[in-house]
Amino acid sequence: MNDADRTSAPTVAPIAAVLADLAVLVVFVLVGRRTHHEDAGVVGFFRVLWPFAAGLASGWLVTRLDRAPLAWRRVVPAWLLTIAVGMALRIAVQDRELKLSFVVVALVFTGAGMLGWRAIARAVHARRAAPTR
Questions:
Q1: Quick one: how far is CA 39 from the chain centroid?
Q2: pTM for this prediction
Q3: CA dihedral angle for residue 102, residue 107, residue 108, residue 109, rounded to 10 degrees
Q4: In this model, does residue 110 exceed pLDDT 80?
Q5: Which of 77, 80, 15, 21 is nearest to 49 (CA)?
Q6: Which of 8, 27, 28, 132 has the smallest CB count inside 10 Å?
Q7: Would you say 9 and 122 are in contact if contact means Cβ atoms under 8 Å apart?
């Protein structure tokens, strides 16, 4: 971790961060499947989840998010890669068509989740680190 990562972001265990990001994807898939009244059970759930989980893994690897899980300069590219790779896999491997509305929803939902929990963690850290009056 370089000095900029140490000073700009509080610390969180990488395993906790990756589990939180995966939880965002699980909720995304559950909400989407329920909204569209899809009921293909566990198989259908994992059919939708795995491309985005693979995208999340690639985002974490490419950005080295494990070194600073709360650093915005790593999180934003990891989030965008999660969606880009997930969509590419859905199209290439699952023969799904590209739907702009789905891309937008995926970007907004996962962005709110992946960036949102980190914003909360930073705010809690800042509040705890602030001198008491």
A1: 24
A2: 0.86
A3: 80
A4: yes
A5: 21
A6: 132
A7: yes
